[in-house]
Amino acid sequence: MDIDHIPSRRALDRYIKERFPEADMYEREDFLKKAPSIAIPTEIHRRFSETYGGRNHASKQMDDAVDPRLAVDRNFDAIKLGLLEQGFTDKDIEAARVKLHELHIEQGWYL
Fold first, then answer.
1. How far apart are CA 6 and CA 28, in angstroms?
2. Is the overall model pTM greater than 0.85, yes or no?
């Protein structure tokens, strides 16, 4: 299993830098350590994640930083295909999406 940060830590770091420029690197790191993520099979992470490895380029990070809620849905939609192929049910997958959104809201990433 891999831990997939949705959206990526780099996108969230850009979000913090833009919205809270007074936050120092230690504060940002503290926020990022607690950011929501999901455990998914390693192969699904590698094959389907929009931000795995070299796919998390600067323009992707900037797009995701503009609207973290939309980024969660886009990133989640990408891995959903792999999760369905792996045999996870649509009901369970969508419950995980709802939980990710709830965690982001609780932590104040968006409303």
1. 16
2. yes
57-88, pLDDT tens digit by residue? Answer: 999 999 999 999 999 999 999 999 999 999 99
Contacting residues for 74 by C-beta, under 8 A, at least 6 apart: 50, 64
Pick from 109, 110, 37: nearest CA to 79: 37
Q: Where are the alpha helices (DSSP H) in the chain?
A: 9-19, 25-33, 42-48, 58-66, 68-86, 90-107
Q: Which residues of 48-70 are buried (b: 16+ CB within 10 A; e: fewer)?
A: bbbbbeeebeeebbebbbeebee
Q: What amino acid is encoded at 13 in this protein? A: D
Q: Give the residue carrying structure tokens 């994640």.
A: 49
